[in-house]
Amino acid sequence: MSSGEQDLHSTVGTADETESNATEGTASEKPKLDLEVQITEVGPCKKHVKIAVSRADIDRQFEESLGTMTREAAVPGFRPGRAPRQLVERRFRKQVSGQVKSALLMGALEQLDEDYKLEPITQPQLDVEAIDLPDEGPMRFEMEVEVRPSFALPDYSALSVKRPVKTISDPDVDRQFTSFLEQYAQLVPKLEGGAEVGDFVTADMSFQLGDGRRNDVKEVQFRLQPEMRFQDGSVPKLGEALTGVKPGETREAEALIGSSSTDASLRGKTIPVTFVVHDLKQLRLPEVNASFLEEIGFDSEDELRQALRELLERRLRTQQRQAIRREITDKLLEVTPFDLPHELVTREERSTIRKLVMEMRQGGLSDEQIRARELEIRANAHESTLRSLKEFFLLAKIADAEGIKVEDDDLEMEIEAIAARTDESTRRVRARIEKEGLADALYAQILERKALDKILEKVQYEEVPLVEEKAVETLDQTAASAETAEEEAPASES
User: Fold this and answer.
1) Which residues pair with 164 in a beta bridge?
2) Domain that holds residue 246
3) Is 408 in the same domain as 326?
């Protein structure tokens, strides 16, 4: 992937320094190397490159490096710059050879990039220590390079997409109001009736892994929601399975295992999961009075409700944009097939998850919504990352075609917007981005958004009702046992 690393601060030299640097640059300009280059396709987005640097270039670089060394070397018995050339060459040959090799390698790679436009997305796999600088003949080396996928630019000038629409109603605000109050609620025993959606259940869970194997999770507490997600899968019909259950009862459900499970034999399968219920609790909401409102920073209930309405409207805009983006990229990727290396996708899984979580947080999603989607992404990390990378390369190519770039000002504006949403200083946001290694993700996010905005200028919309997302509970547990994970680890590394 393009590095996307942008300096958030720039250092400007004095006029004298600028003039001096320019003069030095002109004086040190070198002739092009005489290279013999062979490039072979060895897989999706992967090229094998063989390079031979001519003997004449090696000799010229030796003369240059040796001349510099002769002028600067400190040789006992001689003043600097006065030692015989032959003595300097004999005494410092190994050091000079290293400088020659480094200079030729750097020059060859720069010229390769300039002449062949390979567009590498990672650093070339090059074993510098293994490269030999011969006494006779050319210097040869080879490497594998991951490059951007090559595909024809799809037509994005006349797309028709569905835009989900919804009017935020008073009942919507009422539900969000209740959800907000739950942050300050007290958890109390439920003494009558069975479990209902929204109650808290304490239960043992037993995942039936097959061949007599199972993974038992003891006394885990979770909120009963229509769906449950855990680290490597989900229980899509949790609410149906456990509604009405009472302490001491047992219920069965089905768990769908994701493609990133540590147990390869379970990936993509549906397995039984048993719940043995021990306890039920429910929430007791706080009284909304003047002291409570003052404590949470609002003057009135109406002011709180208005803030919640604005939050829902921001989430709606995020949902609309995500749905539109998904449909646009679906249509463009359908007519623009290309493959990516498995190794690249695997390497990018962690950074892709960070990028998607950052986008959700900026879109105003709640912590619960972010957590639920994050677990869904993690359970199917390879597919999610593959999709995200394909979207990036597609939108980046459109950005290139439209002359779209990410400037320093774009990054500063984005940091300021994040700071405003999170009520933090821009300095703190910038420091967190640098510390967590999110600069690449932020760059990619801005580039993709700008490319998508260009496409949206030409899109025709059909408005359709927004399909509401159902509530999801999340757990840190996995269906695959720890023992299974340990057994699978060596196989996955090989």
Assistant:
1) 464
2) 186-284+476-493
3) yes
* Shared domain check, 266 and 352: no
Helix or strand run (H / E) with residue 257: strand 250-257
CA distance 325 to 450: 12
Angstrom CA distances, 383 to 110, 218, 232, 379, 392, stand at 35, 31, 13, 9, 14
> Where does the pLDDT of residue 29 fall: very low under 50, low under 70, confident under 90, or very high at 90 and above?
low
Same domain, residue pair 229 and 358: no
d(Cα 106, Cα 122) in Å, to the nearest integer?
A: 16
* Across 336-351, average pLDDT: 85
Report which of 165, 149, 167, 154 is spatially closest to residue 458, judged by C-alpha positions.
154
- Angstrom CA distances, 8 to 131, 314, 411, 440, stand at 37, 28, 8, 12
- Percentage of the residues of the chain whose pLDDT score is greater than 90: 51
Count of domains observed in the chain: 3
- Residue 271 shares a structural domain with residue 313: no
pTM: 0.69
Q: Are both 353 and 444 inside the same structural domain?
A: yes
Return the pLDDT at 25: 43
Q: Are residues 447 and 342 in the same domain?
A: yes
Residue 409 lies in a domain: yes
User: Would residue 80 count as lying in a domain?
Assistant: yes
8 has a pLDDT exceeding 90: no
Give domain status of residue 1, yes or no. Answer: no
Q: What is the CATH number of the domain that holds 359?
A: 1.10.3120
Measuring CA to CA, how many Å separate 231 from each of 128, 173, 199, 201, 279?
A: 41, 31, 22, 19, 24
Start-end of H helices in 191-300: 238-242, 290-296
- Mean pLDDT confidence for 366-378: 72
Note the pLDDT of residue 2: 40
- All residues at 6 or more sequence positions from 298 whose CB lies less than 8 Å from its CB, including other chains: 304, 307
Whether residue 439 sits in one domain with residue 319: yes
Of the candidate ranges 170-174, 404-408, 455-459, 483-487, the one whose mean pLDDT is the lowest: 483-487
69 located within any domain? yes
In 3-state terms, what secondary structure has residue 369? helix
Distance CA 123, CA 136 (A): 29
Q: How many CA atoms lie within 13 A of 252 on its CB side?
A: 4
Whether the CB-CB separation of 364 and 315 falls below 8 Å is answered with yes
Query: Mean per-residue pLDDT for 352-366?
Result: 70
Mean residue pLDDT of the chain comes to: 84
CA torsion sign for 439, 364, 304, 178 is negative
Evaluate the CA torsion angle 246, 248, 249, 255 in order and state its sign: positive
Distance CA 450, CA 444 (A): 10
Q: Which residue has the higher pLDDT, 68 or 154?
A: 154
